[in-house]
Amino acid sequence: MNDFEKQITETAGNGLLSLEIETLQVNLGLRCNQQCNHCHLEASPHRSEMMEWPTMRLVLEAARSFGWGRIDLTGGAPELNPHFRRFVEALRQDGHPVQVRTNLTLLLEPGLWKIPKFFRDHQVQLVASLPCYLEENVRAQRGKGVYEKSIEAIRRLNALGYALEPNLPLNLVYNPGGPFLPPPQSLLEEDYRRELRSRFGIAFTRLFTITNMPLGRFRAELNRQNQEQNYRTLLRESFNQETVAGLMCRHQISVGWDGTLYDCDFNLALGLPVNHGAPDHIQSFRPSALMKRRIVTGEHCFACTAGSGSSCGGVLV
User: Fold this and answer.
1) Which CATH number, 3.40.190.10, 3.10.450.50, 3.30.460.10, 3.20.20.70, labels domain 17-303?
2) In whole angstroms, how far apart are CA 100 and each of 73, 160, 188, 191, 241?
3) What are the residues facing 211 on neighbouring strands?
4) What is the structure's pLDDT at 84?
5) What are residue 249's phi and psi, to 5 degrees?
6) Nearest residue to 266 (alpha-carbon basis) of 281, 280, 256, 276
């Protein structure tokens, strides 16, 4: 039993169990046009892992089996999957709300400039990475030129109605630039809104603050700074019992690019599939067996319960 499991057992009396499946998160591949310092999946232009259409067909069948829940598409850069548009069209035809996690800069790449209109035409909800409203901080995490491209992409999305029309949300994501917890989400959202409006006249819907996981490239950076153990101690000592009910692993399930099922995208990064007797591949997806499953946990889970908590949708409390 790992220390997180012990913590949960001490406070809740049993292991961590899922409550429902509200969201099916689908990783379409690890290829990305960027190579961000905080990426727990170590996505990059050099990765070749990509979900194939037969696996997507199984995801479509699974989505039909659990109703009209949200489908959350992620990567890498999900738009780089060659079947991306076909998959989104099929999901929307089946009536599923579709959310795409975009890095913004991809929308300016040659051959992809029609993607924003495609998003609008299919009422795709967007979650976009913009780890800070200051150029120097974005450059440090995501590279030179990314900030300017991100701002231009938001301008183009605003022009199509994103963040201005209620059915076209554009949510931004903040990631800390070092081994510390995010500041209060509501206060940081006010800063983002004020600064982005005054500097560029652009708008967004909501800001999500997400705690960095000590995995992938961020873990490598912690090791370079000799800060991994200090950061893990910070996460452990910041455990907040009130976050446990809202943990994303209790309300969603993640599908890896090869169809393997995970309790969350972070377990995907670690290669820790669904276990404890529950189906672990999309071809054996059964809502009844996955709805109330026991969740696979590890030391990294302290990142989701630290402070105000962290999830793909921001803070938990």
Assistant:
1) 3.20.20.70
2) 5, 16, 23, 24, 30
3) none
4) 98
5) -65, -20
6) 256
How much is the pLDDT for 94? 95
- Intervals of the chain under pLDDT 70: 12
Q: What pLDDT does residue 4 have?
A: 95
pTM: 0.97
How far is Cα 134 from Cα 18, in angstroms, rounded to an integer? 38
| β-pair type (261-262, 252-255) | antiparallel
- 170-174 and 98-102: which strand pairing? unpaired
What's the rounded Cα separation, in Å, for the pair 182 and 312?
14
Q: What is the pLDDT of residue 82?
A: 97
pLDDT at residue 58 in the model: 98
207 residue type, one letter: L
pLDDT of residue 66: 81
pLDDT of 14: 77
Each residue's pLDDT tens digit, 292-306: 999 999 999 999 999
Which are the contacts of 95, defined by CB distance < 8 A and separation ≥ 6? 68
pLDDT of residue 143: 87
The residue among 41, 86, 102, 94 whose CA lies nearest residue 70 is: 94
Domain boundaries, the chain: 17-303
Taking the CA atoms of 39, 44, 49 and 55 in sequence, report the sign of the dihedral they define. Answer: positive
**Which segments of the chain are extended strands (E)?**
23-27, 70-74, 98-102, 125-129, 170-174, 207-209, 252-255, 261-262
What is the full DSSP assignment across 7-66?
A: HHHHHHSS--B-----EEEEE-BSB-S---TT-TT--BTT---B--HHHHHHHHHHHHHT
pLDDT on residue 26: 98
